[in-house]
Amino acid sequence: MNTDQSDVIVVGAGALGASTALHLVKAGVENVVLVDKDGPGSGTSKAGAGFVGPLAAGWDAGWGRSELDVEYFSIDFYSDLATRHDIDFRHSGHLYIARDADAWKHVAKFHDTDTVPDSQLVEPDEIRAVTKGFLDGSSFHRAVFQPSAVQLSAGKAARAIAAEFATLGGRVESRRPVTGLIKIGNAVTGVETEHGPLYADKVVVAGGSWSNTILGGDYFLPQVPLVLSRMITEPLNVPANFPALNFAGYSDDGSGLLWVREDCGRLNWGMSYPDYPRDDLVDNPIPDRFDDIRLDGIFQVRRASQSLTHLMPGLATDKFWVAHGAPCLTPDRRALIGPIDERPGLYVVGGCNGVGIQHGPGWGKVAAEIVTGATPFVDARPWNANRFGGLYSTNRDVFLALSARSGPMTHV
Fold it and tell me: Which residues belong to any copy of the FAD dependent oxidoreductase domain (predicted)?
């Protein structure tokens, strides 16, 4: 057999691509190749917050049952994955906390018992109990607790998914940057890489921020990369049994959610920010890696977290490291999954909208079902990759559409 010919090539070994490849082999596709310029989980997935829960209850007003279904699928998927791999998994829930009455409007929407039956309202004097004694709630307004949610290490999870794929017979090609598509007419028949061509009956591009570079200029995927950052302290012996915490009312304009969670005895926290370098990739080329991104936005994250240091002294440390990622947002904040009409043989999984780890397992299953001709397990029509037609042709077009839809984008 020609090892450069396969049934399906999946480009990008982050949470979305690795999950798509895994579900393809689970669906019976025998020859699947997962290609990445570095290795599994080395891009935006590495910087993921690691929250998985019923975000569709309040994260974005445009989301619906489809997003909620993949979120619950992801909880079950990661629960099972954790029985075979160390992904720092724990089933400790998510707690959304409002600083004051103005911030409550950003938190109250997460309490929707029609979509999240186990959602609980938490009064200030109950926050200490819910956080297993970690957090004094006396200075807060109110909170919402979602006990069904889980947390994990995003990078470890992406690598574990790729390992599962390899165990089932999939082929992982790391450190093999894809430089473009191979086409016969309009039909896509493989990919060019820095180490030679790879051919396939079908190609799935799940390259995140690099997807449009891979697609080459003759097709534009309507998504725009925005830089996000997180901070991780040195080990502080932080207990691991409290929920992931999301605080509303601490960003400069009051609308962003500052999240804090335990990470192997450390504190791991972040939030989106309107400062540079959030928009740096809208008009500039995508770098090979995110290591060299400037730290301007981190100062806003730091300002927000300083308001909580009296409750979590570890946030005041000057000893921390930073991880950057660039999740891609679509004009309607929903995913892009499926075939590209103008390019037979080409499929995409994109538009993570900042929730690739949360939705990746379910989106990967949907993508595999579409590629193999099966009926998706959830209603995938809202994610049709062709739904915008040719309305958007540049990152700037998508960015302006997002700005008009939601005002200043202070959260992703």
Answer: 7-369
